């Protein structure tokens, strides 16, 4: 949302982008990158607030999990407690004491 030009550019270079539409209105999307066989990463799962709690995020995630079912690892980052609980319901588990490290350049 806040950086539409950057998001558009990022999505154009991803291996996987799956979208959800209500007519001609984009209401959700998920994107992932992968290394060709071992690891895939979900970068964004976005669902418009008016369309949340309608199984859109779950469906997009399940479709992406299916695409990468033969990869050894399928990662994503859940930044907030409600998202952690959401992803747990979809079969994800927290990675113990591991810490995700990042450099952020807004």
Q: Count of DSSP helices?
A: 3
How confident is the prediction overall: mean pLDDT? 89
What kind of sheet is the major sheet?
4 strands, mixed
**Structural class designation:** alpha+beta
What string, H for helix and E for strand, traces the elements in order? Answer: HEEEHEH
What Rg, in angstroms, do the CA atoms define?
A: 14 Å
Portion of residues within helices: 25-40%
* Lateral strand order in the biggest sheet: 1-2-3-4
> What are the segments in which pLDDT stays under 50 over at least 5 consecutive residues?
none
Q: Ends: how far apart?
A: 14 Å
- Number of E-state strands: 4
Strand content: 25-35%
User: What form results from the Cα inertia axes?
Assistant: globular
Q: How would you explain this protein's 3D organization?
A:
A hairpin with a 4-residue loop joins strand 2 and strand 3. The chain has a 4-stranded mixed β-sheet, with helices on one face. It contains 3 helices and 4 strands. Helix content is 28%, strand content 27%. With 106 residues, the chain is α+β, with helices and mostly antiparallel strands.
């Amino acid at each position: 949302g806040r950086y539409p030009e950057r998001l558009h550019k990022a999505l154009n270079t991803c291996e996987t982008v799956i979208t959800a539409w209500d007519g001609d209105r984009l209401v959700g999307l998920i994107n992932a990158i992968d290394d060709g066989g071992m690891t895939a990463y979900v970068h964004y799962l976005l669902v418009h607030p008016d369309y949340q709690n309608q199984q859109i995020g779950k469906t997009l995630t399940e479709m992406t999990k299916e695409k990468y079912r033969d990869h050894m690892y399928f990662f994503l980052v859940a930044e907030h407690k409600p998202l952690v609980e959401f992803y747990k319901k979809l079969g994800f588990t927290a990675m113990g004491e591991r810490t995700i490290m990042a450099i952020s350049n807004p």
